[in-house]
Structures
1.
Amino acid sequence: MDALKIALIGCGMIGREHIERIQNRIKNASIVAVCDVFEAGAQKGAEIAGGDVKVYTDFVAAINDPEVNAVVVTTPGAFHKGPVLEAIKAGKPVFTEKPLTNTAAECKEIVDAEIAGGKHLVQVGFMRRYDRGYNQVKEMLDSGKFGAPLVLKCTHRADGVAPDYTTAMAVTDTAIHEIDVLPWLINDEWDEVMCIMPKTSSKAHEGLKDPQVMMLKTKGGVVVMLEVNVNCGFGYDINCEVVCENGVVNLPCPSFPTVRYANNVSTKIEDNWILRFIDSYDVEIQDWVDHALAGTTGGSSAWDGYVASITADALVKSQTTGVFEKVVTGGTPDFYKK
Ligand code: ISE
């Protein structure tokens, strides 16, 4: 195989982003089929893709199209399992957006199917592992110069959320990024996690608890404090301060000019996550293509996706119990050991 011929399943917002990205910026890959349960959605996807892309409303047919040799899944998380399992069954490499699925039980089915097939086919779209800033921080920490990381202070703030965003989604949709990227950043594993509910913002819609404060402890004893605050109203604001034995390393902010004007010094904050991580998505998808062509996977594996979901389940449980909940993975299977 010298180029990926991709069926993209799910033509919503992130699906359309990836169609545009793959057709215009990614080497050795093109979209040959698009699929969405809503035909109008699939047609829109085909329009963005251009050319004579095939249009499907049934993901089984799209994935098994003989011209297709790879799959991208961009449906909502609750609908990832079906197409990912179908791609594994067809023996085709599959990139699925995060989370791998919404529950650990469903992730386990995917992990079991991939192990049974004996081939690494699944990559999960945790794009922060490809972000320049996180990689710069990781390189500094890995150099050993700053000593061991001890405490991480993180914020995950968003301008606002849709009315169907739930209290659990603060974990499963939002904090899931920190859940995946932070153990990778500091070479550690989660041990126990807890969620505390501060006073709810008057800007949160009916029934939503926001902000939330999450405390996550690693097996190595590092403590992470994470503020998830999705109605902050001032932009998309991701911060990560790593307090080490000999120094403190901060994740760089997106670079905008600092402006002096009208008795103020100010710097813009990014509007949303698509813009904040746009470069990371490009690097991530190209890396998936390169790995798939070489018969391997990069980034987060199905196992990483499973572990993230186990951790998320524990945090969601803690949203009601209010105490630390253990993260029990049962240990990495040999198949996923690097
Ligand atoms: C999205 O995937 C993100 O990347 C954002 O960081 C997060 O705030 C949002 O909830 C997710 O859907």
Note: The chain has a mean pLDDT of 97.
2.
Amino acid sequence: MSGFDTTEHPHRRFNALKGEWVLVSPHRSKRPWQGQQEAPEGEQRPAYDPSCYLCPGNTRANGEINPAYDSTFVFTNDFAALQEQVPVGGVNEGGLLRAEAESGVCRVICFSPRHDLTLPEMTTPAIRQVVDLWVDEFRTLGARPDINYVQIFENKGQMMGCSNPHPHGQIWAQRTVPMEPAKESTEQLAYFQQHQRTLLADYLAIELEKQERIVIENAHFVVLVPFWAVWPFETLLIARRPVQDITQLTDEEREALADIIRRLTIRYDNLFQISFPYSAGLHQRPTDGEDHPEWHLHMHFYPPLLRSATVRKFMVGYEMLGDPQRDITPEFSAGRLRDMSEVHYKQVQ
Ligand code: ZN
């Protein structure tokens, strides 16, 4: 057999950012695209829900009352996974039973006072307020000597285990660098030391030249389905300028970030005409006091859906024991997202 073709033949792709492999099996998706649209979720939420602990003026479980906020609102999570006051200590038995104390802080960010909105239904100026809050939080938390990494993220939709539909995100800031950014740190540093350019700057240049996996662009950011994507409609949002964190963005770049997040999430919602579930988050340099010129600001979107509003991808079987695997190619997914309108389906009709 000759003529290896990534649209036909099973192959492994290398994730240059994490140093891991993914198995791609395009022959398994040769069956025609079902394209079947599930009925849109009938769920119509009120603009204000008296039982929601994130809505303005409501009382949270710890008795605190939310202010009557009119844009964004941030507070320290009442049921945090990380705590600030933890005794220093650890366990080490023969290098095999190892544990160490971990401290940090968990913050909750309400994106909007409106209970019934999500990012794709918000205006660009409203999303810009969220971006500005991310910048403030990253700066403040990252400046603390006991915080060496700040993870900003959003878990959207019941499918992702999100317990409250009020539009909100989270920030977990902690003493150590967690595994996902730590892997990316290792790969980015090795690349930077060899080339004196960031890994993602060079990767972005290749993608812009090929135009096979680009979804959308604006003056300062590009969204693409990465060559090594694992999730069916996974995307990577990359800053054109190789900055290390969001505090370095200019006013115009912050505006552009809000614009591209809005346009991408509208496309996601339009794909299956539902409020599209995902986990998304920014990856930025550790806040350990070093400059980290190897780091290149980016944002990951990991949606679980595969073919329709009700068919999701599971990471099971071979994926738990071998490598992650996908059937539809990243190029196919990028094409689907590129074909989507940027008018939210709820605005049509
Ligand atoms: Zn990353």
Note: Confidence is low (pLDDT under 50) at residues 33-40.
